[in-house]
Design goal:
With 146 residues, this protein is an all-alpha fold. The chain has six helices and no strands. The chain has a domain at 5-85: Serine Threonine Protein Phosphatase 5, Tetratricopeptide repeat (Alpha Horseshoe), CATH 1.25.40.
Length: 146
């Protein structure tokens, strides 16, 4: 079965909504189905032929795996999502997911390296905007209104 790109995007959005609502089983089934379809489409040619939606399905499944407390499966999916390519700043959060999975496996040095890679791509741990053009946060002066 070969789904059109717009249908795959819709299923990814639905899976993300399930994930955000805590419906891990439903989200996991959707992401697993999308991953299986990607496997049918690319065959034995490997992870290098995965497109951006396939990589997003793997990254999303990694988030489900972490919520299910399965860091090993999360790392497998993150490996497929990240591949052997240089990540853009838009994909920096994958390093944080990887850090969470590594930390849960008591691989603390590798987890710290993953956080460093996230920061190196312009990610911020304070919740503010990251990337090119992000403005530094201004401290609030005492006595002033926000």
């Amino acid at each position: 079965m070969n789904l059109q790109r717009q249908h795959r995007e819709t299923l990814l959005i639905l899976g993300y909504m399930y994930l955000r609502m805590g419906e891990l089983e439903r989200a996991g089934r959707l992401f697993a189905a999308l991953i299986a379809l990607a496997g049918e489409r690319v065959g034995n040619s490997g992870a290098s032929t995965l497109d951006s939606l396939d990589r997003l399905a793997h990254a999303s499944m990694a988030a489900v795996d972490l919520e299910r407390d399965d860091p090993g499966a999360a790392l497998d999916n993150l490996h497929k999502a990240m591949g052997a390519r240089v990540l853009s700043s838009r994909e920096a959060a994958l390093h944080l997911l990887r850090a969470r999975a590594l930390w849960r496996q008591d691989r603390y040095d590798e987890a710290r390296q993953a956080v460093d890679a996230f920061l190196g791509l312009g990610g911020r741990l304070d919740g503010g905007p990251s990337g090119v053009g992000a403005k530094p946060a201004r401290p609030v002066k005492s006595g002033s209104r926000a």
